[in-house]
Amino acid sequence: MEIKVCIGSACHLKGSYDVIHIFKDYIQENRLEAVMDLKSSFCLGKCSNAVSVVVDADKYFSVSPDSARCFIEELHRWVMK
After folding, report:
1. What CATH number should be reported for the domain holding residue 20?
2. What is the pTM of this model?
3. Is 28 helix (H, G, I), strand (E, B) or coil?
4. Of 23, 56, 67, 69, which is least packed with CB atoms within 10 Å of its CB?
5. Strand 2-6 to strand 37-41: parallel, antiparallel, or no bridges (unpaired)?
6. Strand pairing report for 52-55 and 59-62
7. Residue in 1, 14, 13 with CA at minimum distance from that of residue 63
8. What is the mean pLDDT of residues 47-76?
9. Given a cut of 90, is residue 81 above it in pLDDT?
10. Rounded distance, CA 6 to CA 23, Å?
11. How many CB atoms lie within 10 A of CB 80?
12. Which domain holds residue 14?
């Protein structure tokens, strides 16, 4: 599963680097490096939904630093199905 977090201007201001750190820590804690590929990306074109996250190139989400942990946990459950 590829996860891209936007680091463009709007997303940066809304905490994209915090989201990345939360995702990275969770992936490492749960040893998910083989199933989750975390990347950053410049503008994903969804600026009004900052912080924009795209999963597998076609599923777009709006994630805040406050919701990032719950979001990555839900992705983890989805991957394990």
Report:
1. 3.40.30.10
2. 0.94
3. helix
4. 56
5. parallel
6. antiparallel
7. 14
8. 96
9. no
10. 13
11. 8
12. 2-79
Going by pLDDT thresholds of 50, 70 and 90, the confidence category of residue 51 is: very high
pLDDT, one tens digit per residue, over 1-45 is 999 999 999 999 999 999 999 999 999 999 999 999 999 999 999
**Strand residues in 7-58 grouped as ranges (E):** 37-41, 52-55
Judge if the upstream peptide bond of residue 51 is cis by omega within 30 degrees of 0.
Answer: yes
Angle separating helix axes 68-79 and 16-29, nearest 10 degrees: 40
For residues 36 and 27, is the Cβ–Cβ distance under 8 A? yes
Q: Domain count for the chain, please give it.
A: 1
- The rounded distance, in Å, linking the Cα atoms of 67 and 32 is 19
